[in-house]
């Protein structure tokens, strides 16, 4: 890794509607899948995915904290949405 | 009287709101640039419809970070009148100035057509020119107007009479068929506790000229003019007690 | 050693003859970048090489015409210092490959054509054609290709979504258009987008470079590898088999939000007085805008590739010059004031970079890292581009002139009243006739608060706030008519678009056309094209409608199967007072007497000619399931008088409603006027003719009016001045459509049952999930 030093840290944020909120898009996809013969589909929830590249000067902890703040304060609306965050090593 | 119309990148009903206020209502209007913090001594602020920042993250989600919104929030906190129309309503929800959030329309499609609205509370600065139960015909134009809020907050909204308009039929009746987008409790418009901040999905600025089919939207602007000029004074919160259904 | 091999030339779709012309014009072998530039600029899409000599026949002059064909869009004078800028353009092939983005970028492209002229877009319309979305009489296409219902519905949903997405976000009302289903469009859907804008006459802008030494500024989106060779590959060659899939990477992605910013920034920059010329980068991107701006200004443009904002890394000059990334503009500013212009774009958050200068030599010079990689005389790419007088030959008729024997037998039998009522219900439910509300409610039809009549009317009507005038606009075309007789069909398309405008009370002042055809290298297709041009020319001359621009889309063929020749005509009309317009719905009458229902115009045809023309009708298609004969004949002088009379009656306020008679004939028109208002009608025929002819015949030059009894005398007086017919056929009122003939009741159908056919079937069909 000496010649191709990684210059960014990838943070993946997955945003979806809360389980308690009706997801008409997910429901439509689910019924379409059933209609297409995928009989084992129990439920579908849809959402958004953000790939965020952070400056590699951040420590892993700091990167996670920064990405978490972005996800919480900007990328999701807590009234209806929740998120999952993963940091690629 | 001066209405400030905020212009975000992607606002596209800013000219329409300006025109309605200036030409249909005969008031002064000014455009307020999103990067400014100066409300230019406006008596009321309109957050117009459109697709601010393309609505690419969530509707209204980026706009509430704009510098002008800091001033708008301070203005509202002092009791200033703020009307959010369509995308403007979505911005008010995202900024927390109003409660709840918008989901995609139940049929997953953008909908543009006139709808009927029943006024639920005429004791607000935006509805004082209406009579109780009055039904208006005003167009909607949105893809995400399916209002959602948790049960507890909904109860609060009802108790404090913060639901201002509901989608209904021509006679004011509520049914699933006359709910265009799946909104909880047919909600088309809500206000804050003080009544001075109101958001509505329908476009009153599109219903200010008989040539275009309806003048029902004028009453909403006229109410604001009444409120500012003092020809209407809001009843004290204690008087407005009868909770909504 | 030569680096340009014959294979490379062929891959660029340049013929050996064209390549030798390149060698002559340059006096040397081209570089690869230059070859790419020639390939896009000499493509059918950009050069109009097969159509140019025919297009010259179109009438393009008129008292109000400020700009005819040759600019980004046509311009007509509205008086009061205002001008109206409009054009219709196709985006057919991209919309088949990727329906949503193809249609969205089609709308984006036509909008840029309008605001690049300094006009703010105030209305759009779209003319769409798809393969069948329901099983009907055509289980398969010629060659045994099955009808692909699921695919056709998917394309429809994608296209409608794309048109809505772009227009709604941009903030321009969609005020009308048409949606047609026909088997021939199955693998070649048509997406024709129209846009109209308004500008002060003295603030129009043109795509012209001027002033040697002036900076050339690139604004808008960054350049990526989108749509490289889109113009030459997608729009200029027919599809074969699985090509559509392979060509997917060529499709551009639109960003309506960015375009909205570009609009505001461009108009603001233009108002600053520091912009001298501007052109959008559409088909053939930077190449086209660079050489055309230089060419029009009689100067040259030199640009440096390293300065072009790029979205991807490692792009070559070839890729940058040929990219069709959307939402980009090239402009020439006044030297010394470039920072002022750049500042306006920065304010709107847009890239604006000086990438070159205007030079005295009439060439386009492209540098990469300071080194010239392409230098081509402007004229070599524009005026000197090949023009072909391709061979043409009349196509032999494939459809019979007279009804086929089985149909003849069917037509010889009288139809009962009950059957006729059923026929009407079936026609109203047919996708070609039924309400398109499912589509149009997905479009913002009201933004800018000018829309008087939106989608569903005869024509879209908007007001002009500044002057109190109104503008009416309609798009029309009928491929089936043109397939049976290209010239007659084209005349009818012009007549109907114009009649739709006249039915609102507006006087037609200009037209635009989008000409959709198969492969012009086939003599029968080129014949269709030539006939259509003649038909448009005759009709436009008779109705005094100059054609101010438009576009040609050839190669709408898949595996040798061409679409019907489909000219789509856009007509724009002016109302001096917006209030003085008419709409189609009957008026509510309350407790008053019903209004007189009048058919204005109409020429008596002989029984024999009717039997021939009925074969092109919607009735023949939907109820009989056959195609034969010729489209109805339209006598242009008579048509002109009918339209003028209609406008006169509306201007005097004598009619309460006006609606053009077209697809489905009188019965469908009556149902539409009744359903849109909830006011029924009672109609009596005194003639002994076949009721199918009276109800469903599609004779041209007819407008359905309603008026009070008190207005009748004055109406008759005016009608007599125009020497046309006006027959009172019934009265409005009730909640049903009641029809009788010679004292016998044929049928009475409730508006409720008509409504459910007209409104409910189409959405249920399109929403149905199919496997």
Give an overview of the whole structure.
The complex is a heterotrimer of chains A (89), B (245) and C (771). Chain A has 89 residues and is of the alpha+beta class. Chain A is 31% helix and 29% strand. Chain A is built from two helices and three strands; from the N terminus they run βαβαβ. Chain A has helices at residues 24-35, 60-75; strands spanning 8-17, 47-55, 81-87. A three-stranded antiparallel beta sheet of chain A has the order 2-1-3, with helices on one face. The longest helix of chain A has 16 residues, at 60-75. Chain A is elongated, with a radius of gyration of 17 Å. A nine-stranded mixed beta sheet of chain B has the order 2-1-3-4-11-10-9-6-7, sandwiched between helices. A two-stranded antiparallel ribbon of chain B has the order 5-8. Chain B is globular. Chain B has a single domain (2-239), classed as Class I glutamine amidotransferase (GATase) domain (Rossmann fold, 3-Layer(aba) Sandwich). Mean pLDDT of chain B is 94; it is low at 237-241. Chain C has 771 residues and is α+β, with helices and mostly antiparallel strands. Helices cover 37% and strands 23% of the residues of chain C. A seven-stranded mixed beta sheet of chain C has the order 8-10-7-11-9-12-13. In chain C, strands 23-25-22-26-24-27-28 form a seven-stranded mixed beta sheet, sandwiched between helices. Chain C has a six-stranded mixed beta sheet with strand order 1-2-3-6-4-5. The N and C termini of chain C lie far apart (57 Å). The model of chain C is unreliable at 231-235 and 241-249 (pLDDT under 50). Chain B binds chain C through residues 9-10, 12-13, 15-16, 19-20, 23, 49-51, 53-56, 109-113, 139, 141, 143, 203, 205-206, 208-209, 211-212, and chain C through 164, 168-171, 255-258, 260-261, 348-349, 441-452, 463, 465, 578-579.
């Amino acid at each position: 890794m000496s010649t191709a030093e990684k210059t960014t840290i990838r943070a993946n944020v997955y945003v979806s509607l809360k389980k308690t909120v009706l997801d008409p898009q997910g429901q439509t996809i689910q019924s379409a899948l059933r209609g297409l013969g995928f009989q084992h589909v129990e439920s579908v929830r849809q959402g958004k995915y953000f790939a965020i590249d952070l400056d590699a000067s951040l420590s892993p902890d700091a990167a996670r904290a920064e990405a978490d703040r972005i996800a919480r304060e900007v990328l999701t609306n807590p009234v209806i949405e929740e998120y999952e965050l993963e940091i690629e090593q | 009287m001066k209405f400030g119309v905020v212009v975000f990148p992607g606002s596209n009903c800013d000219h329409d709101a300006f025109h309605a206020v200036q030409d249909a209502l005969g008031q002064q209007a000014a455009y307020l640039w999103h990067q400014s913090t100066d409300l230019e001594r406006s008596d009321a602020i309109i957050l117009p419809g459109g697709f601010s920042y393309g609505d690419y993250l969530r509707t209204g989600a980026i706009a509430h970070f704009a510098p002008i919104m800091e001033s708008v929030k301070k203005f509202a906190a002092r009791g200033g009148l703020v009307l959010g129309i369509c995308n403007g309503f979505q911005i008010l929800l995202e900024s927390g100035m109003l409660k709840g959030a918008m989901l995609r329309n139940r049929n997953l499609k953008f909908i543009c057509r006139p709808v009927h609205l029943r006024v639920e509370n005429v004791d607000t600065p935006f509805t004082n020119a209406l009579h109780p139960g009055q039904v208006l015909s005003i167009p909607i134009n949105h893809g995400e107007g399916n209002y959602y809020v948790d049960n507890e907050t909904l109860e609060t909204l009802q108790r404090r009479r913060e639901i201002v308009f509901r989608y209904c039929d021509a006679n004011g009746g509520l049914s699933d068929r006359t709910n265009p987008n799946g909104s909880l409790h047919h909600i088309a418009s809500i206000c804050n506790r003080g009544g001075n901040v109101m958001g509505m999905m329908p476009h009153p600025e599109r219903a200010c000229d008989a040539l275009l089919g309806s003048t029902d939207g004028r009453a909403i602007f006229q109410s604001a003019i009444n409120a500012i000029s003092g020809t209407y004074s809001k009843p004290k919160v204690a008087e407005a007690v009868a909770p909504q259904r | 050693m030569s680096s340009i091999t014959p294979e490379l030339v062929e891959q660029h779709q340049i013929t050996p003859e064209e390549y030798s012309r390149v060698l002559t014009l340059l006096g040397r072998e081209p570089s690869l970048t230059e070859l790419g530039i020639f390939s896009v600029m000499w493509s059918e899409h950009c050069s109009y090489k097969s159509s140019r000599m025919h297009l010259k026949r179109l009438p393009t002059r008129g008292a109000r015409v400020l700009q005819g064909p040759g600019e980004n869009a046509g311009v007509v004078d509205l008086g009061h210092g205002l001008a109206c800028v409009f054009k219709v353009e196709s985006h057919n092939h991209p919309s088949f490959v990727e329906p949503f983005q193809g249609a969205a970028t089609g709308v984006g492209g036509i909008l840029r054509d309008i605001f690049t002229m300094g006009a703010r877009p105030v209305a759009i319309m779209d003319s769409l054609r798809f393969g069948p979305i329901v099983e009907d009489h055509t289980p398969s296409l010629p060659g045994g290709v099955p009808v692909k219902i699921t695919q056709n519905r998917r394309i429809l949903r994608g296209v409608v979504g794309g048109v809505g997405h772009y227009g709604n976000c941009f903030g321009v009302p969609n005020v009308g258009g048409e949606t047609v289903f026909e088997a021939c469009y199955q693998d070649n859907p048509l997406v024709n987008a129209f846009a109209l804008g308004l500008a002060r006459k003295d603030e129009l802008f043109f795509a012209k470079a001027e002033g040697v030494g002036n900076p050339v500024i690139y604004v808008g989106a960054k350049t990526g590898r989108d749509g490289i060779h889109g113009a030459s590959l997608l729009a200029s060659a027919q599809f074969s088999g699985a090509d559509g899939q392979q060509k997917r990477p060529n499709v551009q992605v639109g960003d309506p939000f960015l375009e909205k910013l570009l609009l505001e920034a461009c108009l603001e920059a233009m108002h600053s007085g520091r912009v001298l010329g501007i052109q959008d980068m559409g088909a053939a991107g930077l190449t086209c805008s660079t050489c055309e701006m230089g060419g029009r200004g009689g100067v040259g443009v030199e640009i440096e590739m390293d300065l072009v904002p790029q979205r991807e890394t490692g792009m070559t000059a070839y890729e940058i010059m040929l990219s069709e990334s959307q939402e980009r503009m090239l402009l020439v500013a006044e030297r010394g004031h470039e920072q002022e212009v750049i500042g306006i774009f920065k304010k709107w958050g847009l890239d604006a970079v000086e990438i070159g200068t205007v030079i005295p030599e009439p060439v386009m010079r492209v540098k990469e890292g300071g080194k010239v990689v392409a230098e081509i005389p402007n004229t070599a790419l524009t005026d000197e581009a090949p023009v072909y007088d391709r061979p043409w030959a009349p196509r032999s008729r494939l459809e019979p002139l007279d009804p086929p024997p089985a149909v003849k037998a069917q037509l010889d039998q009288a139809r009962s009243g009950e059957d006729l009522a059923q026929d009407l219900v079936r026609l109203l439910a047919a996708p070609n006739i039924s309400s398109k509300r499912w589509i149009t409610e997905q479009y913002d039809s009201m933004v800018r608060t000018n829309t008087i009549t939106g989608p569903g009317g005869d024509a879209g009507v908007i007001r002009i706030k500044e002057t109190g005038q109104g503008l009416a606009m309609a798009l029309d075309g009928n491929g089936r008519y043109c397939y049976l007789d290209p010239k007659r069909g084209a005349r009818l398309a012009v007549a109907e678009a114009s009649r739709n405008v006249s039915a609102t009370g507006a006087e037609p002042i200009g037209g635009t056309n989008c000409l959709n055809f198969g492969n012009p290298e086939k003599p029968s297709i080129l014949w269709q094209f030539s006939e259509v041009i003649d038909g448009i020319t005759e009709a436009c001359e008779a109705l005094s409608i100059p054609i101010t621009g438009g576009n040609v889309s050839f190669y709408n063929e898949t595996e040798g199967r061409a679409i019907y020749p489909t000219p789509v005509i856009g007509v724009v009309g002016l109302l001096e007072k917006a209030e003085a317009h008419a709409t189609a719905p009957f008026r509510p009458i309350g407790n008053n007497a019903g209004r007189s229902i009048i058919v204005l115009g109409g020429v008596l045809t002989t029984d024999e000619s009717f039997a021939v023309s009925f074969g092109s009708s919607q009735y023949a298609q939907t109820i009989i399931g056959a195609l034969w004969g010729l489209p109805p004949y339209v006598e242009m002088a008579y048509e002109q008088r009918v339209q003028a009379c209609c406008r006169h009656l509306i201007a005097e306020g004598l009619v309460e409603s006006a609606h053009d008679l077209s697809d489905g004939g009188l019965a469908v028109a009556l149902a539409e006027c009744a359903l849109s208002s909830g006011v029924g009608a009672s109609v009596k025929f005194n003639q002994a003719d076949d009721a199918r002819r009276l109800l469903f015949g599609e004779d041209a030059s007819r407008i359905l009016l309603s008026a009070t009894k008190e207005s009748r005398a004055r109406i008759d007086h005016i009608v007599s001045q125009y020497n046309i017919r006006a027959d009172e056929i019934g009265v409005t009122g009730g909640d049903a459509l009641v029809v009788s003939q010679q004292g016998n009741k044929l049928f009475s159908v409730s508006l409720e049952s008509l409504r459910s056919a007209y409104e409910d079937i189409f959405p249920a069909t399109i929403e149905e999930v199919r496997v």
